[in-house]
Amino acid sequence: MIGRLNHVAIAVPDLAAAASRYRDLLGAEVGPPMALPEHGVTVVFVLLANTKIELLHPLSADSPIAKFLAANPAGGMHHICFDVPDILTAAEVLRGQGARILGDGTPKIGAHGLPVLFLHPKDFDGTLIELEEVKPEMEPA
User: Fold this and answer.
1) pLDDT tens-digit profile of 17-66?
2) How far apart are CA 117 and CA 24, in angstroms?
3) How far apart are the C-alpha atoms of 3 and 134, rounded to whole Å?
4) Is 130 a known active-site residue?
5) Which domains are seen in the chain, by residue range?
């Protein structure tokens, strides 16, 4: 069902400093900050040859990332994201097997302008999983 690893998301207390470390210390290509009010975050993507790192910072105190950072002040891995070819079919299969989808179960549009869903971490060994619908023709070669 899942395809390639789309990205690993890391919550960070200082987005500009984190982006600078990836760019200046590791020599990575770093994209611009993007505010995603529907998700309560600002993100920066670190572009790698085989995947991406998504740096997350809260837009407000009620953001889920603000709560994560309150519990983990230094930041840390927040979730991993996998591509799926059809998010509604994936959700149906997962629900049928007992997996819980966070929120109301309706896909939202994510940072790449594509539908996303999050799976409950208690169903996946303590790891929050994001699924992003990426059609096979959209995947990088």
Assistant:
1) 999 999 999 999 999 999 999 999 999 999 999 999 999 999 999 999 99
2) 33
3) 9
4) yes
5) 5-138 (3.10.180.10)
DSSP E strands, 2-141: 5-11, 29-30, 34-36, 41-47, 52-58, 76-84, 108-109, 115-119, 128-133
Pairing of strands 115-119, 128-133: antiparallel
Give the span between the Cα atoms of 34 and 126, in whole angstroms. Answer: 27
Find the mean pLDDT for residues 73-80: 98
Catalytic residue, candidates 54, 130, 132, 133: 130
| Pair of tokens at residue 65 | 């990332």
Per-residue pLDDT of 120-134, as tens digits, reads: 999 999 999 999 999
**Cβ contact 31:19 at 8 Å:** no
Distance CA 18, CA 14 (A): 6
